Amino acid sequence: MGFNVGVIADILKFPWPLFPKYKYIYHQGERFDIPALIQDFEFTISLPANNKYELLSIAFASTGYKDGDSFSLRLNDKVILNKIYTKELGQAKQIQPVRKIDSSQDTLTFIYHNTTGTSKVIWVDFDLTSQKEINEGG
């Protein structure tokens, strides 16, 4: 009894939007201080200019987890993640289908819903692919 083993030589041939089309990996981390007693914080995420991106996933962690706090993510006026409640451990959310982002015209906004009103630090990491390779530091 025999079988064949196939090798996929080019991952870029997987069907978009379930898989990314761009080949350059780009990760960007953000850190925000959330003061006490403020409910909703909106942060515009700045990506390197003159490039196109595909958002694959985000990872989130914070100090002082409190039941009731959550986060959302918007691309322009479209909701990608809506009120994802914080957990005691860091968490990652895969984005499918992949979302295209053009740095010259799109706005990516992270919203932290601090319903408990406690101060904390949050970290958000964005996993993306880019059309052109990024060589500058941020």
How is the secondary structure organized here?
Elements: E1 24-34, E2 40-45, E3 52-62, E4 70-75, E5 78-85, E6 91-102, E7 108-113, E8 120-130
State which percent range the strand residues make up: over 45%
Q: Report mean pLDDT, rounded to a whole number.
A: 90
**SSE-based structural type:** mainly beta
| Number of H- or I-type helical stretches | 0
Low-confidence stretches: none
Classify the helix fraction into a percent range: under 10%
Count of individual beta strands: 8
**What would you report as the Rg, rounded to the nearest angstrom?**
18 Å
- In the sheet with the most strands, the strands line up as 1-8-3-6
Helix and strand run:
EEEEEEEE
Calculate the terminal CA-CA distance, rounded to whole Å. Answer: 55 Å
Give the CA-based shape: globular
Largest sheet: 4 strands, antiparallel
Please give a structural write-up.
The chain is mostly beta strands and 138 residues long. Helices cover 0% and strands 51% of the residues. The protein has strands at 24-34, 40-45, 52-62, 70-75, 78-85, 91-102, 108-113, 120-130. The strands form two sheets. It has a four-stranded antiparallel beta sheet with strand order 1-8-3-6, with no helix packed on it. A hairpin with a 2-residue loop joins β4 and β5 (78-85). It is globular. The N and C termini lie far apart (55 Å).
